[in-house]
Each structure stands twice: as C-alpha cells, then as structure tokens.
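Justification of resources, computational component.

The compute hours requested in this renewal are based largely on the per-chain cost of generating structure records like the one below. Each record pairs the submitted sequence with a full structure-token output. That output is archived, and it is also reused by downstream analysis tasks.
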Amino acid sequence: MKLASLAGLAVRLPARPRMSRPAAAVLALTLAACSRPPAETRFLNFDAESAGPALTSGWSGFEKTAAGDTFVWAQAREARVSLLAAGAGERLVRFRAWPYRWDGAPPQQVTVSLNGARLGSQTMGDGPQVYSLPSPGPAWKAGPNVLAFDFAYAEAPRDRVPGASDTRTLAAAFDWIEVLPASGAAGRP
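The structure output for this chain reads:
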C-alpha cells in the first residue's frame, strides 16, 4: 500500500491490481485484431449459405443446375451485390454468368459499375462464361461496396417462350463472383 497526503491527512491507497499473463495476452490479441483491416470479399458463391445478405436487390431465389451447381437469376434490368473491401486498391472483378435467351433474342449486354464508377460493358455469349473487368483503386472504399449489373433487357419466359409459365423477368444467371487484388490477378484468364 502507498501512503498519500491529503490536506495533511495520511490516506492509504490500495495497490494497483496487476494483470495476469493470460489476461494480458488476451488483451494484446484483442487489440491486434481491432487494428486489422476488415475482411474482404474474395469469392462469393451464389448459394443460400454464402450469398444471402450480399445480394441486395434485383435477384431471384437460389436454384440449381442439372449438375447440382447453385445459381441466382438477376431478375431485373439492374441487380446489385454488396462486397467488402479493406480500402482503395486496384482489383479484378470476375464473374461466371449466362444470359436469359429465347429464339430471336438480341444479345444480352451488361454494364458493370462499382459505387457508381463504370467499370465497363460486356456482350454476354450464350451459355455459362467467365467475364473479367479491371476496377480502378479509387472506386473501392473501406467497408461495403456496391457492385451493380445493368442489363439491356429482362424478360419473362411466359412472354417469350410458348408454353412457359415463369412470370419472373430474367436478365442473366450468376454462378459466382470473384474479386482479386491486381497483384494476384496476373496470369488469370
């Protein structure tokens, strides 16, 4: 105990409590975890377990191909997904998708933007294909980022295919999205 003087009176102060080594280690790890950048979205599989909260607008429910692969239809002319990033930095955005098609359908065109910055446009070929677009570093921000897909059309199968009963408007089906740091994208097709 320490003695302190308060207006001539002797006052005993309690000893400062000491932290145990295990408690100090837990505190150090907690503080270190707080200083780490937030987790980044690197791969988003379009299934209920992985993609649910990330699909913010314009998406249908989860479906499966005949081979058992999960996918989701963009069922509007615009579909948005939320991706996490630690901050600014160039990245490569890749996605596997296929357009909704019917006999005589025009080619599907998709324009991709990130937080309002246009990344580019692609004409989608028939069947599942992987599309890649570079994204400039300043377009990304720390935390949630909005990746938007704008389509030339979204049509209901009921209106385009004789005998079809599906009333949803469909633009393109998505299997997955991948976000790679520019340095990790070298050599990717």
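The chain is about 10% helix and 45% strand. Residues 2-35 form one domain.
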